[in-house]
Automatic annotation (TrEMBL):
The record marks H36, T135 as: Transition state stabilizer. This is 2-C-methyl-D-erythritol 2,4-cyclodiphosphate synthase. Involved in the biosynthesis of isopentenyl diphosphate (IPP) and dimethylallyl diphosphate (DMAPP), two major building blocks of isoprenoid compounds. Catalyzes the conversion of 4-diphosphocytidyl-2-C-methyl-D-erythritol 2-phosphate (CDP-ME2P) to 2-C-methyl-D-erythritol 2,4-cyclodiphosphate (ME-CPP) with a corresponding release of cytidine 5-monophosphate (CMP). Its EC number is 4.6.1.12. Pathway: Isoprenoid biosynthesis; isopentenyl diphosphate biosynthesis via DXP pathway; isopentenyl diphosphate from 1-deoxy-D-xylulose 5-phosphate: step 4/6. Its cofactor is a divalent metal cation. It catalyses: 4-CDP-2-C-methyl-D-erythritol 2-phosphate = 2-C-methyl-D-erythritol 2,4-cyclic diphosphate + CMP. Belongs to the IspF family. Gene3D superfamilies: 2-C-methyl-D-erythritol 2,4-cyclodiphosphate synthase. The lineage of its organism: Bacteria, Pseudomonadati, Pseudomonadota, Gammaproteobacteria, Oceanospirillales. The keyword Coiled coil does not apply. Keywords: Isoprene biosynthesis, Lyase, Metal-binding. Pfam families: YgbB.
Length: 158
């Protein structure tokens, strides 16, 4: 059947602002992300996982931070483009499992909405997308509330 697995990872530091975007969902917070795009670490990790599974490089290759056309871009646009690339290569998404690592803000109230948004962009059902949130028990940069990281694992098929 031509199944392939991909893993993606991304991290962004907190900086000025009062909203962060995770999984395509805007969340009010006392800071924003320092990033070229909207800084959505969850979608960036997902893009890398998808591109890696299909052997199509990584997010930096397709959307370099030196390209001004991607400045402040909604990461959902990037994800939809990645899905188009996969489809042109004959792949479709089977499922995605994602983990957001954040000491703050608390993400549990937003998980279901993230799943709905991501399922729509991935062209799968909500049951095919899992999003989890965890902390680092106050260890490291995440534990010190300096930023957020995300991991994504995907299965695609040809």
């Amino acid at each position: 059947m031509g199944m392939r697995i991909g893993h993606g990872y991304d991290v962004h530091a907190f900086g000025p602002g009062d909203v962060i975007t995770l999984g395509g969902v805007k969340i009010a917070y006392k800071q924003g992300f320092v990033a070229h795009s909207d800084g959505d670490v969850l979608i960036h990790a997902l893009c890398d996982a998808l591109l890696g599974a299909a052997g199509l490089g990584d997010i930096g290759k397709h959307f370099p931070d030196t390209d001004q056309s991607f400045e402040n871009i909604d990461s959902r646009i990037l994800l939809r483009h990645v899905i188009e690339l996969l489809q042109k290569s004959g792949y479709w998404v089977v499922n995605a499992d994602c983990t957001v690592v954040a000491q703050a803000p608390k993400l549990a109230p937003f998980i279901d909405q993230m799943r709905v948004v991501l399922a729509e962009d991935l062209a799968v059902t909500q049951a095919d997308v899992n999003v989890k949130a965890t902390t680092t028990e106050k260890l490291g940069f995440v534990g010190r509330k300096e930023g957020v990281e995300a991991h994504a694992v995907v299965l695609i098929a040809k």
